[in-house]
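STRUCTURE:
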């Protein structure tokens, strides 16, 4: 029907506009973080962790503002509490290490509960406290995982395995669903192509040319599985990311793009973090 076709075309154009914003934002972040590779000096080595910390803070604040209910002053207060919890966990982790994050976790969990003790609705208080803890922990652990990947593998590898796959996956899904409703193949084909492309880029740029073919296949398979798990989880939880980005409330396009851009890389980084930390 004509009106359905028009609605589908408009949805497709909107999807491509949102994708273009995220692509530009990812490119700008890469250029800025690449200063640590181009310049020398002790302060330059803090560019990557500070950038990750700041982006994580913005992500935490935006998500908290959109996830809490109530009047704007109260929402901002809970968002401030969430941001404080995030900083209390993420800063020690980036400065000292994961052990400091674990040490700070107990105090953060207890202290963020205190502001909710006097509330008259225990259910709402528990729900809001869960949002505070869940949001701050998710972003803090994601920032720590990203920082560990960058320090262990390097910035180019981090972008190949964590940033490129979600962007490529989204672009391919938009391409395969441009002419009509989505089928299962509009998800499966983009997923497989995204994994294969990322593993191929990693193999061509990072694997030793003298490495036996069996080991190349083994490492490629392991990395592909981890990336695929991260992509699937990010796709299955995309509605949560949309709620946190304020997509349904007409949020600022840049704020929405930052949240939606970060969702896939955070999950992929968390999936890759444990194997990389074991090999360090």
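SEQUENCE:
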């Amino acid at each position: 029907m004509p009106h359905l076709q028009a609605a589908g075309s408009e949805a497709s154009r909107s999807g491509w506009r949102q994708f273009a914003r995220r692509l530009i934002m990812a490119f700008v972040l890469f250029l800025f973080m690449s200063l640590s590779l181009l310049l020398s000096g002790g302060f330059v080595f803090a560019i990557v962790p500070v950038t990750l910390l700041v982006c994580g803070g913005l992500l935490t604040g935006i998500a908290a503002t959109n996830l809490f209910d109530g009047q704007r002053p109260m929402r901002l207060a809970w968002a401030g509490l969430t941001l404080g919890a995030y900083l209390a966990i993420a800063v020690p982790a980036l400065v000292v290490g994961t052990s400091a994050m674990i040490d700070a976790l107990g105090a953060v969990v207890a202290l963020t509960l205190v502001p909710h003790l006097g509330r008259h609705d225990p259910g709402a208080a528990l729900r809001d406290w869960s949002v505070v803890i869940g949001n701050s922990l998710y972003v803090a652990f994601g920032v720590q995982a990203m920082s560990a990947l960058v320090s262990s593998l390097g910035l180019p590898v981090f972008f190949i395995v964590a940033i490129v796959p979600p962007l490529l996956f989204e672009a391919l899904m938009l391409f395969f669903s441009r002419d009509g409703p989505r089928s299962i193949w509009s998800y499966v084909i983009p997923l497989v192509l995204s994994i294969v492309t990322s593993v191929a880029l990693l193999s061509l740029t990072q694997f030793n040319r003298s490495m036996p073919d069996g080991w190349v296949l083994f490492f490629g398979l392991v990395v592909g599985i981890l990336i695929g798990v991260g992509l699937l989880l990010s796709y299955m939880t995309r509605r949560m990311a949309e709620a946190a980005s304020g997509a349904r409330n007409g949020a600022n396009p840049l704020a929405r793009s930052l949240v939606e851009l970060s969702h896939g890389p955070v999950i992929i980084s968390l999936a890759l973090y444990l194997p990389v930390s074991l090999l360090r």
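REMARK: Confidence is low (pLDDT under 50) at residues 1-7.
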